[in-house]
Amino acid sequence: MLSRLLRVESFKHLLESASNALLISDHQGQIVFSNTALEKCFGYTGKELLGLTIEDLIPKRFRQQHKTYHADYIASPHLHGTHQELNDALKPLGLHKNGTEFPLEISLIPLETSTGLYVLSIVRDTTPQRPAEETPSQYEALAWESKARLQAILNTATDGIIIIDENGLIETFNPGAERLFGYEAAEAIGQNILILMPSPHREQDTGYIERYLQTGQGEFIGASRETTGMRKNGSTFPIDISISEMRLGERRLFTGIVRDITERHHFKELEEKNAELERFIYTVSHDLRSPLITIHGFAGMLKQSFTQHNQEQILEDIGRIQAAAAKMQLLLDDLLELSRIGRLPNRPEKFSLSDLTREATELVQSAITKRGVQIKVAPTLPHLFGDRRRLLEVMQNLIENAVKFMGDQKAPWIEINAYEEEGKLLCYVRDNGMGIDPRYHEKIFNLFDSLHQNVEGTGIGLTIVKRIIEIHEGHVWVQSAGAIGQGSTFYFSLPRAPD
Which ranges carry the Histidine kinase domain (predicted)? Predict the structure, then answer.
């Protein structure tokens, strides 16, 4: 019946000449008729529209919602609310053939026929019109001025401003970004944003946009964070980056504002070094004074014993002087080792944590055997990325520390394992020894702060561990209830090794 009606010229002319945009769709949403006004509204020809459904004229993010509404409407068209209620509920947007979105209002009229229900949709574009007093040239001038202002902001901003698409491809690269990264805009545009990231940050950030688009959750989007950037020449530098999302029609773009924080890092490092130097001077003067006092005291006693020709006492005094000198030598050696850790002397490399753990255990094997400690290492461990020699020191110190502080544990054991969490690698060394009172969890990493004076060592081992891990952009901490037998777990985090 409807098809016959549409073939009646007078009826068809009535629809074609209507000022409003009209379309007729069947119960499945398939478009069976559109007038010229609707074709102009959406940018399609009449023939193109006949092959489309209603959902093709709606932005993707609203299509499922519309399908649900359409199914309900077809089932009971007379039970739905007024046109105003419809538009208030759906707040419909149209999707032009060129991809732009525009607001519209819709009125629906059910057409019941012998072949089923059809729907006549009356569509009105509600895009705000420019004021009548503005001529096209004035309107274009305002648009040009707005664009010029935006371009001026991009050109004069001291920070780097980079816009990327959903695939991570660079679309905008302002002069600030050129200065920061050393690329010309023409070189950077079209490249993936990962060219501005060094390993292992590049591997950690791969796929973060895709995950955000799929889940709507992303730790980087809408937040500011510190990370590392890489210049065209391969050099790296610390940056602060804020990423936000914007929409242009159906397109989702991401804007990153990048700032070089090298000076901020230098200032922070200087403050930390000054504070550390103060602690160092105080600690060294205190700890080196002790063996010096011992040497001075027994030197006087040695002089007295020599005068008295007391051979046995002379040998005893010499032995104590030698022990004090050896302690001082040990302190000086440890201080020298600590000073060398100020930089990574070896090129970072990817290596097996299993091999590193085995080597560290062999270095401490004598103490392990003497104390009867069982070493439990996870069967599969991930790879690390860093200075292998320094990280061997970390593992050796942590194992040695665990052996030293087993206390009276009758069945001592040490467990070593690692796992990935939030893009980082977490390693731990766990024992069932004496444990550490939570009050001292921070103090134990300070220079020469040993909680047990009767245990052999200078108290510098954990300070070395902390320094090495921090140079690797990681963090080290301890978990322990302080109860005997419950032991301690030392954790350290490192950037994930590149694939």
Answer: 283-498
pLDDT tens digits, one per residue of 49-87: 988 999 999 888 888 888 888 888 888 876 655 455 555
Distance, CA of 141 to CA of 135 (rounded, Å) = 10
**Contact at 8 Å (CB) between 255 and 162?**
yes
The tokens describing 154, both together, are 């991009």
Same domain, 113 and 136: no
Q: Which domain holds residue 25?
A: 2-125
Do 55 and 169 lie in a common domain?
no
The one-letter code for the residue type at 481 is: A
> What's the domain count of the chain?
5
Each as own residue / partner, the long-range contacts of residues 478-485 (CB below 8 Å, 24 or more positions apart, any chain) are 478/436, 478/441, 478/444, 480/435, 480/436, 480/437, 480/438, 480/441, 481/435, 481/438, 482/435, 482/436, 482/437, 482/438, 483/435, 484/407, 484/408, 484/409, 484/434, 484/435, 485/409, 485/432, 485/435
